[in-house]
Structure formats: structure tokens, C-alpha cells
Design goal:
This protein is α+β, with helices and mostly antiparallel strands. The chain has 14 helices and five strands. The chain folds into three domains: 89 residues, TATA-Binding Protein (2-Layer Sandwich); 117 residues, Hypothetical protein, domain 2 (Endonuclease III, domain 1, Orthogonal Bundle); 45 residues, no CATH class. A hairpin with a 5-residue loop joins strand 2 and strand 3. The mean pLDDT is 93. The structure holds a DNA duplex.
DNA sequence: GCGTCCAGGTCTACC
DNA sequence: GGTAGACCTGGACGC
């Protein structure tokens, strides 16, 4: 399976855009030039794939050579990969903005700005919930426990990200103990039950045409998702109006713009306001610039 | 090895 | 509307 990406696409920059590549079922190689994950086509069919870029073409290789995929299933996998890698995202205006700023000229040069997302919105929301109020090490532990204990095992020994319905069947006590997600357990359980009972349809968020403010409010109405998490989930939807400020952004901003002096979130917000609807992505590029060098 | 303290966002009760 | 405290875990630190 292959995808012809636009000329401004770069797989390595997309993989390296943020920490998602480090959370299972994602995994990558040393140079972050290839990405593996599991695409769940149904409750019973999970396909372990490797994504790589060869001669300006994105290749998708199923890792289980014996698996049979219909034409429809192959098309579905290709569409999910397009969505994960943000291949159809138009960044021309963003790149023009970056070219005007001396310190951001590296962004179009490295074809950065496409932020890796999970196969599903649900997976993105749960992982974002797991980044709140803890170290990255704990985020990894929680995600590893969730996939290993509730995900489906593929024939080559990897585990898929579990469906909301699977998690919803577990108790809060079980999630606390087995997933190590602590006080997040009731939030996770409520989200999964609401999805199972069709009270909320998070998968529609990526293609929704409601305003960014409304989408932000919808995200904030999910227990366990606050201003930081909602702002960053919006970036994964392709809306960059919110900064999603966390301790890392505060630290990097003070180092980059204030000689290490701490500033309030209002000061950070005001600084990026001049970038309009691209401000969230500009902020992300600034604070992660050294990851790309 | 053990105990203590701290960092990390979000929620809720209270003013 | 603003604020303080609780939530839970891993890691750093001191003993």
C-alpha cells in the first residue's frame, strides 16, 4: 500500500512532532524514520503496520505477511494513515508565516508542523488525559498497562489500543490497580461508558464543522480534560487557536523569551496572539525546535 | 532500604 | 469569578 504525499510532507518530522511515537501501540526506530502501530479494522481484526517513506512515497507494510486484506480494508488503512500523518493538511499559509520569522525559518525547511495523531480520536483523548498531572514516565506506564492488559494481541505479539467498550466493562477499582491511572480512573471510565452508550461521539470531532470555541467547550466537558488537555487535543484536530499551556511550555517560553524569568500564562497568551489562528502551532514549534535539530 | 517531599493538571468546595 | 486543597504516582533526596 502506498500514498503519494504532498511535496511539503516529511515523515520523520511528523513522527518527531511530539511524544506520541513513544506511547504504545506506536513504536519507532532509532532515527524516527519509520513508525509502527496497530490499526483495528474491527473487534477481531487488528493489523500491525509499518510506515516508511521511500523516494517521496509513503509505504504501508502489514507486518503479518499471512494476513489477508480486502480492497476495502486496504483503503480503510490508507485513509487512517493519511489522517494519522496529517497528509491532507494544508500548511501553505502557516509556512509563509514561519518564513517571515527568522527563528522559525527551520519549520518549512524541515517540513515540520504536521502533528502525529492516533488512528482514533478516542485514543488521542485517553492518551492526553494520561499526560495530565504526571511525569512522562507515568504516562508511558499507564498507556502500556492499558494496551497490554486490555488490548488485543496480534500474531506478532503486539497489543492494540483497547476499544472504549472494552475499558467500560472494567471497574474503577480495577483501572486504578491495573492501569495505575489513580484518580483518573473514574474519568476514564465515564468517558468510555459515555462512548459505549452513545452519549458522546468523539470520532466526529475531527470532521466537525462547529466552531473551535464550541469544540473546546465540548472537550472541557469531558471529566479529566481541562484547559491544557483540550487545547492540545484541538491541535490534533487541526485547530490551533489554543496554546494548551503546561509546565513544559512555561519553562521553554521563559528560557526562550524572558531569560529564564517566570511569567504568567496571560503573558504567554499575549505573545502568541499576533499569530492568529496558527498561534498554537507556532508555540509548539518554538518550544520543540531543539527536538528537530 | 525507607520515609519524606515535590511536581504535574483537573476537579470541587468554598468565599 | 477566583482560590485553596485534594487527588495519585514516580522520582529525587536525605537519612
Amino acid at each position: 500500500m502506498t500514498i503519494i504525499p504532498p511535496v511539503d510532507f516529511n515523515l520523520q518530522s511528523t513522527i518527531n512532532s511530539h511524544g506520541w511515537y513513544d506511547l504504545p501501540p506506536f513504536r519507532t526506530n532509532e532515527h524516527k524514520s519509520e513508525l509502527e502501530t496497530i490499526i483495528s479494522l474491527s473487534k477481531l481484526k487488528h493489523v500491525h503496520i509499518r510506515i516508511r517513506e521511500m523516494n517521496s512515497v509513503v509505504e504501508i507494510v502489514p507486518m503479518n505477511k499471512t494476513i489477508r486484506l480486502s480492497k476495502t480494508e486496504k483503503e480503510k488503512i490508507k485513509n487512517i494513515v493519511r489522517s494519522m500523518l496529517r497528509i491532507d493538511e494544508q500548511l501553505n499559509v502557516f509556512y509563509l508565516l514561519c518564513k517571515k520569522e527568522k527563528h522559525l525559518r527551520w519549520v518549512p525547511k524541515r517540513q515540520a508542523g504536521r502533528i502525529l495523531r492516533s488512528p482514533t480520536m478516542f485514543e488521542d483523548i485517553v492518551k492526553m488525559m494520561f499526560t495530565t498531572n504526571c511525569s512522562w514516565a507515568l504516562t508511558k506506564i499507564m498507556t502500556e498497562h492499558l494496551t497490554h492488559k486490555l488490548g488485543a494481541k496480534t500474531s506478532d505479539g503486539l497489543f492494540s489500543f483497547p476499544a472504549a467498550e472494552t475499558i467500560a466493562k472494567k471497574s474503577e477499582k480495577w483501572l486504578r490497580k491495573e492501569i495505575s491511572c489513580g484518580y483518573r480512573a473514574p474519568y476514564l471510565l465515564k468517558l468510555c461508558k459515555d462512548i459505549s452508550n452513545k452519549k458522546i461521539d468523539v470520532e466526529s470531532f475531527r470532521s466537525s464543522d462547529i466552531s473551535t470555541e464550541e469544540l473546546y467547550e465540548k472537550l472541557c466537558s469531558i471529566k479529566g480534560i481541562g484547559h491544557y488537555a483540550a487545547g492540545n487535543i484541538l491541535k490534533l484536530i487541526g485547530r490551533y487557536d489554543y496554546l494548551g499551556i503546561d509546565s513544559w511550555v512555561r519553562k521553554r517560553f521563559s528560557e526562550l523569551h524572558k531569560n529564564g524569568r517566570k511569567v504568567s500564562d496571560d503573558v504567554i497568551e499575549q505573545h502568541y496572539n499576533r499569530y492568529g489562528t496558527w498561534r498554537g502551532l507556532i508555540c509548539l514549534m518554538e518550544v520543540t525546535a531543539d527536538w528537530h535539530t
